[in-house]
Amino acid sequence: MLRHLSLPLVALAALVFPATAAAYEEFPGTRVLGMGGASRAFAIGDAGPMLNPSGMALVKTYNLEGAYGYGNRLNDHSFHASAVDNTSAFNIAAGVYYTYHLAEPPVVAGTMPLSGSGHAGGVALAIPVTPFAAIGGTVKYLRLEGADAVGGNDGGVTFDLGATVRPHQFFSLALVGRNLKSLHNSYAPKGIAYGVALLPIPGLIIAADGITQFTPDNLSGRKGTSVMAGGELTFGGKFALRAGGGYDAVTGNGYGSAGASLVSEVAALDGGIRQDVFVDEGSPRVTIVGVSVRIFVPAMQTQPQQ
């Protein structure tokens, strides 16, 4: 596996360090963004180390991804790169990612600039414990600067633990403990997430997730449970459409989302958008967009990439 991961690590360096990269809590990845944020019960590829590490064990594949996301809440720029390898003969899946986040909110007259930035890196492992279940963990390091280091909390080490149960090839369930070591900042909120995914026919994924956040957001002071759902339909293995929506407990807003992909045997180009539709009083209307490029080399007897 280390041999297989050497190429992703080189690619990560090339993708990340020349142009810095990131994924913050509001940008879960381009494909997941288009599905309303729901994908924890079928967290393949980049969604594994980001949302549910145990999901990396679901599909035997070797996946590289680079992404950019923008959110208008604080004029956020997010660049993200990852590598996931589940081609090991030992059935152990591994993933790595590096992120960089830059927030440049508009300056209000008479106030100091509130720009902030952050670096994050993670290493994830997943192990199938039975033919129908897998467990996994992600160890994450955050380094926050400027306005992102709220109250002097400039980051540290935290971790996620996840489990996926797939009693049938058409159905899976997931449970994830998020940021189980508290870092007291909104970019690593402590909580739990849970999800269900249905794959009723080839090329169709339907997913629904919930996230219960125990740590209040630094901007809104809110916490609570967010709910989300979405789907993805792939046509002939060449083109995919996504749609979804949900309720964000941090902003109090309801949103819709959409996305699309162009897919080949070795790569895919993805785009996605999330737009607040129902806005809580006093809360900003949030828009998040993302684009990504995926490169994958399926192992033998691998389920096709969606």
The CATH topology comes to Porin
Which residue ranges are poorly predicted, with pLDDT under 50 across at least 5 consecutive positions? 1-25, 300-306
Side-by-side strand order of the widest sheet: 1-2-3-4-5-6-7-8-9-10-11-12-13-14
Termini separation comes to 24 Å
Structurally, the number of domains stands at 1
Give the helix tally.
3
CATH homologous superfamily - what is it? Answer: Outer membrane protein transport protein (OMPP1/FadL/TodX)
| Class from helix and strand fractions | mainly beta
Overall form: globular
Q: If classified by CATH, what would the architecture be?
A: Beta Barrel
Question: How would you summarize the topology of this molecule?
Answer:
Elements (H helix, E strand, L loop, with lengths): L1 H15 L13 H5 L12 H5 L10 E10 L4 E10 L7 E11 L12 E15 L2 E14 L8 E14 L2 E8 L12 E8 L5 E10 L10 E12 L3 E10 L4 E11 L3 E12 L8 E10 L10
Detailed description of the structure:
The structure is a single chain. With 306 residues, the protein is mainly beta. The chain has one domain (2-296): Beta Barrel (Porin), CATH 2.40.160.60. The chain contains 3 helices and 14 strands. It has helices spanning 2-16, 30-34, 47-51, and strands spanning 62-71, 76-85, 93-103, 116-130, 133-146, 155-168, 171-178, 191-198, 204-213, 224-235, 239-248, 253-263, 267-278, 287-296. A 14-stranded antiparallel beta barrel has the order 1-2-3-4-5-6-7-8-9-10-11-12-13-14. The protein is globular and about 45 Å long.
